[in-house]
């Protein structure tokens, strides 16, 4: 149960309602989807298992509401978003408590996620006013063969209904990073939250409800992916899909047809360490980048490529820091908490056992209790080990020793994933040349990969995604250009 009376109307007995047409509703299916607490492995919450018919109704409402919303003055749309941002911050504690229970996010990180989400909404409102208030004016005589008799006015208009699908690891922040740009641009939104993270998502949507957004403009549809997943992503009423997650995104992109896509999928973010790097700085960033939220981040450092001459010294520093990480319950603000599910824990264990069989050096003893996996650094990892290429999404980090910078760049570029990478060196020229050679969406110099600040462009190449995110890019992506051409009488002039 939620700890705030403000949220009483979003739950029916012990099952959370879904949100459509401005109301909290119980699904006609009579079924629910269970949400298991990753730490206790017990049933924590229940959410509605919506039907395809309920999806249809939500999309109908979204289409009608969008037509009216697009006519609302831009400053009023911004005002409504600021109100939602304030409410999200006001109710940060009950929402954070849900994050702790359904995705095992450490308590302090959970509060940070909600506050950051409020800030993102506010920034988005301001940035949207700036971007969308500007049009473009062209005259025809700049192109050969034309006279100055046509004036072209270009402006940005909304796409229509945006389907937003965030992942479990940031179910509030990565939802609002889709919802806020969509709304400021004049679109409506149908949110399909992840199962683990659905209750946090429903609480967040309730803040938009309390802010007084028009009925039907925002929906939150919960349910089984097998029942409504493809039905949603292939629905003719959807005009744009913004998805963050794993392999599912590739399947969606194949089925989506002529719909604009914004996708951020997996990452195998490489950390290249040169001989002249500040090893204390590198070690601190490997801990922050590789192990925060138990490594369950697309932008986590997932492979360390270190020059052989400094590898021993670096591994020693990292091991000392790993051994100080606090392992346990998210309520106790531990550094390492349970991974999201048993299937995730088993997958991680499979990668670890493969590395063990093939001779990797274990810098700590491998330890797992249920979904809780103790942090583990694997040294002397070779390219024939699965963990060299696959994304564990857990607190397990491989170290590959390299003999040249080229070897490190080659490993980075040979990956299916290309979200982010980082390079540590005191030589800015080398850093820039390596960054140029790394085929990845973002390269961080002397810092671990990160998505934020949230207005920075954020994108991946290859299997890591389509399109670019970040507030400005998302607003632009969720609009299309509309032009009006004014035809004037041909000028009669003589050159003389």
UniProtKB/TrEMBL annotation:
Q: Which UniProt keywords apply?
A: Cytoplasm, NADP, Oxidoreductase
The terms under GO molecular function for this entry are: glyceraldehyde-3-phosphate dehydrogenase (NADP+) (non-phosphorylating) activity; lactaldehyde dehydrogenase (NAD+) activity
What CDD domains does UniProt report for this protein, alphabetically?
A: ALDH_F11_NP-GAPDH
Query: Which parts of the sequence belong to the Aldehyde dehydrogenase domain?
Result: 26-483
Which sites are catalytic?
Answer: 264
Q: Which Pfam families match?
A: Aldedh
Q: In its keyword annotation, does this UniProt entry include Cytoplasm?
A: yes
**EC primary class:** oxidoreductase
Q: Which locations, inside or outside the cell, does it occupy?
A: Cytoplasm
Q: Which reaction does it catalyse?
A: D-glyceraldehyde 3-phosphate + NADP(+) + H2O = (2R)-3-phosphoglycerate + NADPH + 2 H(+)
Which EC number(s) are documented for this chain?
A: 1.2.1.9
**What's a GO cellular component annotated to this UniProt protein?**
cytoplasm
**Primary place of residence?**
cytoplasm
The organism sits in which domain of life? Eukaryota
Does Metal-binding show up as a keyword for this record?
no
InterPro entries, per the entry: Ald_DH/histidinol_DH, Ald_DH_C, Ald_DH_CS_CYS, Ald_DH_CS_GLU, Ald_DH_N, Aldehyde_DH_dom, ALDH-related_metabolic_enz
Give the family this protein belongs to, as stated in its UniProt record: Belongs to the aldehyde dehydrogenase family.
Q: What is this protein called?
A: NADP-dependent glyceraldehyde-3-phosphate dehydrogenase
- In its UniProt entry, the species of origin is given as Ceratopteris richardii
């Amino acid at each position: 149960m939620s700890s705030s009376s403000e949220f009483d109307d979003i739950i029916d007995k012990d099952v959370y309602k879904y949100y459509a047409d401005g109301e909290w509703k119980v699904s006609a299916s009579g079924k629910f989807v269970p949400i298991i607490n990753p730490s206790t492995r017990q049933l924590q919450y229940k959410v509605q298992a919506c039907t395809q018919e309920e999806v249809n109704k939500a999309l109908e409402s979204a289409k009608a509401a969008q037509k009216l919303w697009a006519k609302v003055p831009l400053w009023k749309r911004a005002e409504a978003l600021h109100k939602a941002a304030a409410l999200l911050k006001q109710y940060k504690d009950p929402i954070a408590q849900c994050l702790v229970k359904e995705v095992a996010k450490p308590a302090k990180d959970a509060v940070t996620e909600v506050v950051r989400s409020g800030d993102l909404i506010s920034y988005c409102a301001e940035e949207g006013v700036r971007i969308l208030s500007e049009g473009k004016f062209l005259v025809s005589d700049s192109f050969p063969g034309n006279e100055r008799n046509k004036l072209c006015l270009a402006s940005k208009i909304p796409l229509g209904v945006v389907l937003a699908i965030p992942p479990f690891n940031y179910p509030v922040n990565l939802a609002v990073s889709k919802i806020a740009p969509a709304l400021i641009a004049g679109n409506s939104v149908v949110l399909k939250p992840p199962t683990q993270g659905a209750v946090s998502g429903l609480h967040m949507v309730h803040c938009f409800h309390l802010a007084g957004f028009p009925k039907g403009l925002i929906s939150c549809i919960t349910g089984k992916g097998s029942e409504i997943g493809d039905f949603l992503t292939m629905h003719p009423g959807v005009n744009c899909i913004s998805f963050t997650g794993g392999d599912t995104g590739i399947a969606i992109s194949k089925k989506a047809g002529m719909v604009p896509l914004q996708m951020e999928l997996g990452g195998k973010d490489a950390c290249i360490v040169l001989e002249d790097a500040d090893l204390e700085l590198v070690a601190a960033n490997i801990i922050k980048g590789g192990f925060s939220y138990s490594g369950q981040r697309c932008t986590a450092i997932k492979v360390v490529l270190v020059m052989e001459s400094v590898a021993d010294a670096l591994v020693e520093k990292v091991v000392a820091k790993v051994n100080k990480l606090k392992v346990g319950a998210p309520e106790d603000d531990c550094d390492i908490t349970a991974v999201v599910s048993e299937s995730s824990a088993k997958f991680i264990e499979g990668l670890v056992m493969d590395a063990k069989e093939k001779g990797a050096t274990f810098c700590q003893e491998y330890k797992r209790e249920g979904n809780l996996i103790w942090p583990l650094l694997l040294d002397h990892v070779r390219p024939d080990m699965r963990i060299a290429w696959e994304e564990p999404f857990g607190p397990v980090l491989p170290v590959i020793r390299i003999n040249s910078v080229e070897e490190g760049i080659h490993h980075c570029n040979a990956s299916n994933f290309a979200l982010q990478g980082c390079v540590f060196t005191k030589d800015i020229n080398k850093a820039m040349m390596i960054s140029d050679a790394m085929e990845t969406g973002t390269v961080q110099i002397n810092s671990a990969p990160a998505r934020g600040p949230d207005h920075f462009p954020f994108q991946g190449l290859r299997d890591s995604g389509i399109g670019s995110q970040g507030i400005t890019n998302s607003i632009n992506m969720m609009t299309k250009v509309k032009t009006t051409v004014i035809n004037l009488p041909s000028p009669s002039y003589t050159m003389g």
